[in-house]
Amino acid sequence: MKSKHLFFVAIAVLTSACCRTNDKIHCHIEGTVPDSTYTTILLAPSGSDWRVADCDTIPVSDGKFTFDLYVDKVMPYELVSMKEINQGSWYSCNFFAEEGTVNVTFYHYDDDRKPDMICDSPANKRLLQFETVSDGMKDPLYIEADSLERNGLWYSPRMAELEVLINSTDDEEVKTELRKEANALYESGKAFTPEYFAFQEKSKKVKAEHDRYVEEYIRSDRTIVGLYLLRRMAMRSRNASKDSLFITLFNDVYQPLFSNHPLSESIEIWIEGRGIKAGNRFIDFTAPALDGTLHTLSKEIDGKIALIDLWASWCGSCRRDSKSMIPLYESYKDKGFTIVGIAREKKREHMEHALAKDGYPWLNLLEINDANRIWEKYGVGNAGGIMVLVDRDGTILAVHSTSEDVERILKERL
């Protein structure tokens, strides 16, 4: 474990570097792509939702790209290929914007290989050291999983046969019957092989070991790298006990060191979003309607039972859920019930087209490029949306509400 101790040095150097505020920090970015189909590289703060991110576009010329990034503080950024974003699956290159040059090599996505980064600046060297150990713990699992799939040891023989049959027929009735059988195999535990289950047990142990390593790194690091990893782990967390650990680490270790850093602000917003649950109060915000008029949520819903509907034109499930509320709105709008929607978009035209098609009859507001960070505040920063049902006094009644949930509550209270 000697190599781990290398991660816990040079804290003072990195801490002072990330606090530079007087002059702009100049980070020069350069790199190469695998072929002529990679024409544009996208750049945005690390952790951005690419569906709405306000990002820089870097053109590729003769297989190379270059960009000069100027920032006020050392910050994590992310590079991705626009080609892969458009395909819906991508590898990204995470790095810190700090004084120096970052050199990045992109590979074909089919090569199943993350971009390589070379950089000698302090935070990036530290991040690369961390990633080397982290990847060394996880990569063998990916290789083993690929081997199981390649050798037909993932699905049971019947499940593998059903997959082929489902994908080879256009007859919907036949597909329905085949899917019923497939679902029965899943429910009975017969969809997978013994080798698959052994692999899953091994994966749990490796993941637990990896999580312990990352948590110990964060606890001991106390540099901008540790703060970045803390935010990354927090954003991915789906475990209440882990949430508590991350909140404690932030409050006790990192907030005092980086009180005015954007990463700290992001974690504070994440902590606020943990409170979006029944019994707590909704989070207020002000946003424009399509005509530019500003509306404050608390004023729009004051004294009413209200459904706060965070949706997006590109989120099919969000729009289906929103449309399911139209009959309820029409039935209860004169009895003390209202709905306020807010669309998360890159362009206002996208919202306009969705409204024209779906016909929501309630007030809808617009959030362009996460300008007010409303989705983050509601704990769904990388999700399509959320529905939050609120009582007359502002207390949250239900989260991720279905039309059945809302109707039941409205019948009880109105």
Describe this structure in words.
By secondary structure, the protein is of the alpha+beta class. The chain is built from 16 helices and 15 strands. Strands 13-12-11-14-15 form a five-stranded mixed sheet. Helix 14 links the parallel strand 12 and strand 13. The longest helix is centred in the first third of the chain and has 29 residues. The N terminus is likely disordered.
The computed structural class is alpha+beta
**Approximate helicity band:** 40-55%
Summarize the biggest pleated sheet: 5 strands, mixed
How large a portion of the residues is in β-strands, by DSSP E? 15-25%
Q: Mean pLDDT, nearest integer? A: 92
CA-CA gap between termini: 63 Å
Number of helices: 16
Overall spatial form? globular
Regions with little confidence, pLDDT below 50 for 5+ residues:
1-21
Taking Cα atoms only, what radius of gyration do you get, to the nearest Å?
A: 24 Å
| Quaternary status | single chain
How is the largest sheet built, in terms of strand order? Answer: 13-12-11-14-15
Number of strands: 15
Keywords for this entry:
single chain, 414 residues, alpha+beta, five-stranded mixed sheet, four-stranded mixed sheet, 20% strand, globular
Describe the structure concisely for a colleague:
The chain is an alpha+beta fold and 414 residues long.
Secondary structure topology:
Elements (H helix, E strand, L loop, with lengths): L1 H4 L5 H8 L6 E8 L7 E6 L10 E4 L4 E8 L3 E7 H6 L5 E5 L2 E6 L10 E3 L3 H29 L6 H12 L3 H17 L5 H28 L2 H13 L3 H18 L4 H12 L12 E3 L5 E3 H5 L3 E7 L4 H9 L1 H7 L4 E9 L2 H11 L4 E6 L5 H4 L8 E5 L5 E4 L3 H11 L1
Parallel strand pairs: 1-7, 11-12, 12-13
Antiparallel strand pairs: 1-4, 2-3, 2-5, 5-6, 7-8, 9-10, 11-14, 14-15
